[in-house]
Amino acid sequence: MSNPLKKTMVYLGLADEEEVYEEPAPQPRARKTEAVVEKAAPVTPIHRPAVVRQPTPAPVSEILTVHPKQYRDAQVIAENFRDGIPVIINLSQMSDADARRLIDFASGLSLGLYGRIERVTSKVFLLSPENVAVSGDGGVAQADGDAVPFAQP
Description:
Main location: cytoplasm
Subcellular location: Cytoplasm
Largest sheet: 4 strands, mixed
GO biological process, one term: division septum assembly
Order of helices and strands: HHEHEHEEH
Shape: elongated
Number of strands: 4
Strand order of the largest sheet: 1-2-4-3
Family: Belongs to the SepF family.
Mean pLDDT: 74
Function: Cell division protein that is part of the divisome complex and is recruited early to the Z-ring. Probably stimulates Z-ring formation, perhaps through the cross-linking of FtsZ protofilaments. Its function overlaps with FtsA.
């Protein structure tokens, strides 16, 4: 009964089984195989410590100041910030709509790379990477008394 159709019909009960199947007796393992297994070297697993990628704190050797005129200048900001360079963004030469869009991008960039974004004045922002600490009041924009053009109503 090597015909698959016949086997299916027997399984479904549509045909009678003509042949009786017997399971073949298990064959004893050959000594040659066992000898090969016994001669194999034992396997020792290697436990490697987990590698944690953390940026090494290096002294800040440069700070990039950018005066973007269009949104496409965001690429320069992103490339330098990704390399661990703090970036000062002066938005005074941009329209309010493009400036908002660029700050939204910079906020996502800093969040994605574990950095920080801080407002220095109403149109100047500082992007600092994870390994750079910025100290100060954090209230410079409020102390200047400048109107915040990016605040939501």
